[in-house]
Design goal:
The complex is a heterodimer. By secondary structure, chain A is mainly α. Chain A has a single domain, classed as Helix Hairpins (Orthogonal Bundle), CATH 1.10.287. Chain A is built from three helices and no strands. By secondary structure, chain B is mainly α. Among the domains of chain B are: 77 residues, NADH-ubiquinone/plastoquinone oxidoreductase chain 6, subunit NuoJ (Four Helix Bundle (Hemerythrin (Met), subunit A), Up-down Bundle); 42 residues. Helix content of chain B is 73%, strand content 0%. Chain B is built from six helices and no strands. The longest helix of chain B is centred in the middle third of the chain and has 25 residues. Chains A and B meet through helix 1, helix 2 and helix 3 of A and helix 1, helix 2, helix 3, helix 4 and helix 5 of B.
């Protein structure tokens, strides 16, 4: 059976949903950050697969930007996490409610 | 035929490792599963003729971001189980059900959109004066996408300064 872009799109969707489940179900914020990385990877697979399907490299250029944003997100997010952990001694998001009304 | 075998093997690995990332109780193991997941995604990029992105994936994701995660996991020395306390208002089963609904919707969109014949031919890519994957991406980045490229560099600078400011004990 031939592998079509739809196969890659379905793989991307499945990986995206795994990331969404991680964000919604886990309570360890480090795992949640890693789930966000999985979501971004799912988007990248989709972009690269369609870049090849359409024979247009713009999709790959955008993957470069997505990777840059992912790196920035990881650095800032983990910085916030470290600053929070110094004050509260927890990485459980259910205990991170200081800004909740 | 080869592409079929490679695709299904890599898909099984990527999805299995993704599930392992979000289900493993030990956070360090979770990070290591994430590394393997990123490496499998890099192999998929090679299959998709995106060699530059495969190298970037290994260097930036598996080499940079994951090391950052490992450092934080080691720095955050947990004395108690991070999942021990649960907010009684949290509804994990509703979250799972919602994610399943989104998966069905995404799969439906994919199947529907690819089951139709494309109505119009796709516009041909702009003629590039260079050959090769890396050369063509570099050519696009420094011509059509020069301003987004520079904005991305500023974003990385801001993120670097912000991360240092946040993680520093006092300024």
């Amino acid at each position: 059976m031939e592998i079509t872009p739809a196969h890659y799109a379905l793989l991307s969707a499945a990986l995206f949903i795994i990331g969404v489940v991680g964000v919604l179900v886990r309570r360890n914020i480090i795992i949640i950050f890693m789930s966000i990385e999985l979501i971004l990877n799912a988007v990248n697979i989709n972009l690269v697969a369609n870049a090849r399907h359409l024979e247009n490299l713009v999709g790959q250029v955008f993957v470069v930007f997505v990777i840059a944003v992912a790196a920035a997100e990881a650095a800032v997010g983990l910085g916030i996490l470290l600053a929070f952990f110094r004050n509260k001694e927890t990485v459980n998001i259910d205990e991170m409610n200081v800004m909740r009304w | 035929m080869v592409e079929t075998i490679v695709f299904y093997t890599l898909s099984a690995l990527i999805l299995g490792l993704g599930v392992a990332v979000i289900t493993t109780p030990n956070t360090v193991h979770s990070v290591l599963f994430l590394v393997m997941n990123f490496l499998c995604v890099a192999v998929i990029y090679v299959v998709l003729e995106a060699e530059f992105l495969a190298v970037i994936q290994v260097l930036v994701y598996a080499g940079g971001i994951v090391v950052l995660y490992l450092f934080v996991v080691m720095l955050v020395n947990l004395k108690r189980d991070p999942e021990a306390h649960q907010d009684p208002r949290r509804l994990s089963l509703v979250g799972l059900a919602l994610a399943g609904a989104v998966l069905l919707e995404l799969a439906g969109i994919v199947v529907y959109s690819y089951s139709r014949e494309p109505s119009a031919p796709v516009a041909a890519a702009a003629a590039s004066p260079v050959q090769g994957n890396v050369e063509q991406i570099g050519w696009l980045l420094y011509t059509d996408y020069l301003i987004p490229f520079e904005v991305a560099s500023v974003l990385l600078l801001v993120a670097m300064v912000g991360a240092i400011v946040l993680a520093k004990r006092e300024l």
